[in-house]
Amino acid sequence: MPSQTYYNLPKEKQERIMQATIHEMGTHTFENLNIANIIRASKISRGSFYQYFSDKYDLYTYFYQYIAQRKIEFFGDLFKIEHDIPFLERFLQLYISGFKFGTQNPEIVKAAKKVLDSDYLLASNQMADSMKQGVEIFASFIKRDQELGRIRKTIDPLLLAAFLLEFSNKMTLEEYFKYEADPSIIENKIRQLIEMLQKGIE
């Protein structure tokens, strides 16, 4: 994580550093990340950079959290447990909002694509931890619906959450990132999945 020195910087300068990082992350995989490019684009000295971040691993950890926070702010109430909306509708709206976020932030989408091209990042604990956190968040929404009688209490919240996240990652987001798929086609897949969950297949 950044040092306190970084957090003491003016917000404009912090943002400049992160925009340079996003651009570099979208240009090269993590293995080939060039700190010199970030330093040059940020208009800071090399010494200053290493006052803020210990190395590129430290920078990436913060980059990941920065993007996550940007998305949470963009999604608004959708991530709030007290927001009264059925889980499956919340699930649909989260992914529709995700595509809107990508449309409005093409540089971040480019960086996300490069993450999927990085063997190191795909194998990192951070990716696994992120998936686990996502499952736990979705499970909390499912448990709330169970308490409200919207979802059967015999359903395992963690199993359903893991299934939905795995599906969305393999069949939607990876396709979107790798093959420039039409978001409307991906949205249709999500809607079909939700319909199957709601009505069953028999």
Give an overview of the whole structure.
- The protein is mainly α and 202 residues long.
- The chain has a single domain (4-199), classed as Tetracycline Repressor, domain 2.
- It is 75% helix and 0% strand.
- The chain has 11 helices and no strands.
- The mean pLDDT is 88.
The description of the largest β-sheet is: none
CATH fold-type name: Tetracycline Repressor, domain 2
In quaternary terms, these chains amount to: single chain
Please write the CATH class name.
Answer: Mainly Alpha
Rg from Cα: 19 Å
Mean pLDDT: 88
Task: Give the total of domains.
Answer: 1
- Our count of helices gives 11
Provide key terms for this protein.
Tetracycline Repressor, domain 2, 11 helices, 75% helix
Gist of the model:
The chain has one domain (4-199): Tetracycline Repressor, domain 2, CATH 1.10.357. The protein is 75% helix and 0% strand. The chain has 11 helices and no strands.
